[in-house]
Design brief:
The complex is a heterodimer.
Chain A: H1 2-25, E1 31-36, E2 42-46, E3 50-52, H2 61-72, E4 75-77, H3 95-100, E5 105-115, E6 118-127, E7 132-141, H4 146-162, E8 171-179, E9 184-192, E10 199-204, E11 208-213, E12 219-224, E13 231-236, E14 242-246, E15 252-257, E16 263-268, E17 275-280, E18 286-288, E19 296-301, E20 307-312, E21 319-324, E22 331-332, E23 339-345, E24 351-357, E25 362-368, E26 374-376, E27 384-388, E28 394-401, E29 404-411, E30 417-421, E31 426-432
Parallel strand pairs in A: 2-4, 2-5, 3-5
Antiparallel strand pairs in A: 1-30, 5-6, 6-7, 8-9, 8-31, 9-10, 11-12, 12-13, 13-14, 15-16, 16-17, 17-18, 19-20, 20-21, 21-22, 23-24, 24-25, 25-26, 27-28, 28-29, 29-30
Helix pairs in contact in A: 2-4
Chain B: H1 4-21, H2 23-33, H3 38-44, H4 47-58, E1 61-63, H5 73-88, E2 94-99, H6 106-126, E3 134-140, H7 151-157, E4 159-163
The chains are: A mainly beta, B alpha+beta.
């Protein structure tokens, strides 16, 4: 009885904290909206984790986990109001309570404050029908790492229940534009994959575009007009150190990292026409890969580094071509539709995501390299800048809503769409990071 | 040479257009003019040509069809007027700023904007203007003139701006 009261109080407290957290983050956060549901999500119950500490926890771990799993489209999160009990560890779990509300999986846990900025988080995942624990972990982290830890817990649950690696503990880069009466403000930002914690890494009055993640997730390459024309920079995220990589006469654009991270594929029109080059980041040696009067742009390496796909209008309209990464053996890949551009690979190297126009607007497509099948995933008219999540399960892209640019994500099979709506500004040019290699 | 008469006519027409309010074009010119000091010397030295040059400044946009860098006959006449003005004012240099509408991908549009600027440059060069007096820049779809998402807006954004 006493325990129940305590748990109820804790629950109310968590709700109060939740409200505060939402208010606090209202400016910065993305608002996620499922625009197209999935029927066969795994029903999962996530019990708000017990809080044992003074004051307010810096982040509500169980809420972050619930939002992650919901957003993936692979889970149906059961409303908390349906719960018949509120267990926090294996001793308190009564599987009957969860079978009754048709939960297949159950997550319980506890967050305990150890010191001024030290927290112990433990959670357990159960298979309700087998009445069996699938996993349980305990961590000790400082307050600032609680969000990251929550995403790692989501990744673990995702892996246990779907058999696939999760991509919640990753980041996104994007550009926002705030239009002013005389000047525009362009911000290059990096945020968690759920849009929280955005950090501005570059601010300019001139356009910024084409952010591209280094394979180790430590650097971004991008195009900036800060010197009144397009130039390519790289920037290390840890300390903001920048390097000007390409400022040749004409267009400098579309940087893309090689899988080893030592080479950038870039576009330069220094010889009079946009061509694709590889640029060795150490020696700065450049090697021209294409030689055609057409526009050749938007290179992207295959994950094994052997090929580069790119956009060319050498056939009259922009289409996707593939060449070896030394520039030989060019072949056209896409034939469907009158506009196919900005292709990039999935991590398994088997699929491309691209912008496609088949007569009804610019939409996001997936192209299967072996079968040459092209599938259109979205249904609006001005979609662009698609990139795969590192696990290949989702595609992040930019679209228009109410006259403004917004970010949206679609599952790679096209069944689930989510708009990541920012509070203000025109949002564009998203790029999903690779997996994090360290905490 | 045979087009000299029509050129004068265009310049006169340009004057009336300018009077109707080419405020935007002039403002653009001012913003960009800061970087080229040769502008003031060149135009300031010629009495009557100064007026003509001012009018051409208001008629400084060449428009294009979707995904195309082909210059229409109408635009060619305008470009030739600029060519004549450049020939008459040897101290004058211009920047050819290529733009695209928002449809399609940003990097492709960056290349398309450059292709448009180069198309205008080639006509000016063919008319006898030195290539070193013509700087090309592409802004792709990054600097739209109109922010609406419709054809009338897009047609304004597919342009090359000739800036002194």
């Amino acid at each position: 009885m006493k325990n129940k009261n305590k748990s109820k109080r804790a629950h109310q407290f968590v709700l109060a904290c939740l409200a505060m957290v939402y208010c606090f983050h209202a400016e910065a956060a993305l608002e996620i909206e499922i625009t197209q549901g999935v029927e066969a999500g795994i029903p999962i119950a996530i019990v708000p984790f017990e809080w044992r500490g003074a004051g307010i926890p810096p982040h509500i771990v169980s809420d972050i986990v619930e939002a992650d799993l919901k957003r993936s489209g692979r889970f149906d999160t059961i409303p908390r109001s349906d719960f018949l009990s509120h267990p926090h560890d294996h001793k308190q779990v009564k599987f009957k309570d969860w079978r009754l509300i048709k939960a297949e999986a159950l997550v319980v846990g506890r967050v305990q404050q150890l010191g001024t900025d030290q927290y112990q988080v433990e959670f357990r995942l159960f298979d309700v029908f087998k009445a069996k624990q699938l996993g349980g972990f305990r961590y000790k982290v400082p307050g600032k790492s609680l969000r990251k830890l929550a995403h790692q817990i989501s990744d673990l649950i995702y892996l246990k229940l779907t058999g696939e690696r999760g991509a919640f503990d990753t980041r996104i880069a994007y550009v926002t534009v705030e239009r002013g009466a005389t000047k525009n403000r362009y911000l290059l930002r990096v945020a968690d994959s759920d849009g929280y914690g955005p950090v501005t890494i570059l601010e300019s009055n001139e356009p910024i575009l084409s952010p591209s993640w280094s394979p180790d997730g430590q650097m971004l390459a991008y195009v900036s007009f800060e010197k009144k024309r397009s130039m390519i920079f790289t920037q290390r995220l840890r300390d903001g150190q920048r390097e000007l990589i390409a400022s040749f006469p004409g267009v400098n654009g579309a940087p893309a990292w090689s899988p080893g991270g030592r080479t950038l594929a870039v576009v330069s029109s220094r010889e009079g026409n946009p061509e694709i080059y590889t640029l060795d980041l150490q020696t700065k040696n450049m090697r021209r890969l294409t030689n055609h009067l057409a526009i050749d742009t938007e290179p992207a390496f295959s994950p094994d580094g052997r090929h580069i796909v790119f956009t060319s209008d050498r056939g009259g309209k922009p289409q996707i071509y593939r060449m070896r990464s030394d520039g030989t053996a060019v072949e056209r890949l896409t034939f469907e539709g009158n506009y196919n551009a900005r292709a990039s690979y999935s991590a398994d190297g088997k699929r491309l995501t691209l912008v496609t126009n088949q007569g009804r607007g610019y939409r996001i497509g997936v192209f299967l390299i072996d079968s040459k099948g092209l599938f259109v995933l979205t249904d609006s008219t001005l979609d662009e800048s698609p990139s795969f999540a590192p696990n290949g399960a989702m595609i992040l892209y930019a679209t228009q809503q109410g006259g403004n640019g917004v970010l949206s994500a679609v599952s790679a099979d096209g069944r689930v769409k989510q708009v990541l709506r920012f509070q203000k500004g025109d949002v564009r040019e998203p790029a999903w990071s690779p997996y994090n290699r360290k905490l | 040479m045979r087009s000299k008469a029509s050129l004068v006519l265009i310049i006169v027409l340009g004057l009336t257009v300018a009077a109707c309010g080419g405020k935007k074009g002039v403002k653009d010119g001012e913003e960009e003019g800061v970087s080229t000091s040769a502008l003031d010397d060149g135009s300031g030295s010629m009495g009557s040509a100064l007026g003509a040059a001012g009018d051409l400044a208001a008629q400084n946009k060449v428009y294009f069809e979707y995904d195309s860098a082909a210059v229409t006959d109408e635009s060619r006449v305008l470009i030739e007027a600029h060519a004549q003005n450049l020939m008459d004012n040897p101290g004058l240099n211009v920047v050819l700023e290529g733009h695209a509408d928002e449809r399609g991908t940003r990097e492709y549009n960056l290349a398309l904007g450059e292709r448009r600027a180069l198309a205008v440059q080639e006509i000016l060069v063919a008319y006898g203007v030195g290539r070193d007096r013509l700087q090309t820049i592409s802004y792709g779809e990054e600097r739209p003139e109109s922010l609406e998402h419709n054809e009338s807006s897009w047609s304004l954004n597919r342009r090359v701006v000739i800036l002194r």
